[in-house]
Design a protein that fits this description.
The protein has helices at residues 20-30, 44-55, 126-132, 148-156, 166-169, 174-203; strands at 6-10, 34-37, 63-66, 75-78, 90-94, 106-109, 139-142, 161-164. By secondary structure, it is of the alpha/beta class. Strands 1-2-3-4-5-6-7-8 form an eight-stranded parallel barrel, surrounded by four helices. Strand 2 (34-37), helix 2 and strand 3 form a beta-alpha-beta unit.
Length: 211
């Protein structure tokens, strides 16, 4: 099972700096690996049409639909109260430490940082606080992520990826913003892996005077 990782884009057409399809296209070009389609206020037909258009710019099978209806795809992201659908290949859920994770492949934890997209939503967990929830499946850090330092901090805390909306939707250069965030997350993940490998090597006597 391939689960979302790296930079994950959440859509918000109302705050997008340009046409949503073009903003997403640029973000993908800059390094975004997955996209979650929100826009739950649209009619079914309009939302299904938008999903179809997004699939033309998002890497194969990496468009996830927020809500229990995959709109012709196979991947969904559920809120805490959404029912679990049947027939999907990939299922994520927003998790706050209590929601049922039966048949869930990944979760988002939020808000990691204070977020202007949802003022008053919180309190912020912090990257370390999110990690301390000990999600039993891969987790994405969500909420208020807008800088390379924050992306790297989430990677170091063990996040599988960062889910970003405002910083990408409002960016005047989504490609550059996506590149900065995805590169910082990848670098942070690399440092985290290197530290883990060093710790394993030390415990086995492979450093510090060992073999």
């Amino acid at each position: 099972m391939v689960t979302p990782g790296g930079l994950v884009v959440l859509t918000d057409r109302r705050s997008a700096s340009g046409p949503l399809i073009e903003v997403v296209r640029q973000a993908v070009r800059g390094g975004a690996a997955w996209v979650i389609l929100r826009e739950r206020d649209l009619s079914y037909g309009d939302r299904a049409a938008l999903a179809s258009r997004l699939r033309s710019v998002v890497p194969g099978n990496r468009l996830i639909i927020a809500g229990p209806d995959p709109l012709g795809g196979t991947a969904v992201h559920l809120s805490g109260s959404d029912p679990l659908p049947s027939g999907t290949v990939l299922t994520g859920r927003s998790w706050h430490g209590t929601e049922d994770l039966s048949s869930v492949d990944y979760v988002t934890l939020s808000p990691v940082y204070p977020t202007s997209s949802k003022p008053g939503y919180g309190p912020a967990l912090g990257a370390t606080g999110a990690a301390e929830l000990r999600a039993p499946v891969p987790w994405l850090a969500l909420g208020g992520i807008g800088t390379a330092a924050q992306a790297a901090e989430c990677a170091a805390a063990g996040a599988a990826g960062i889910a970003v909306m405002g910083a990408l939707m409002r960016s005047r250069d989504p490609e550059r913003t996506a590149h900065e965030l995805s590169s910082a997350f990848a670098a942070g993940s690399g440092r985290c892996l290197a530290s883990a490998e060093t710790a394993v090597g030390t415990s086995r006597g492979l450093s510090g005077g060992g073999w």
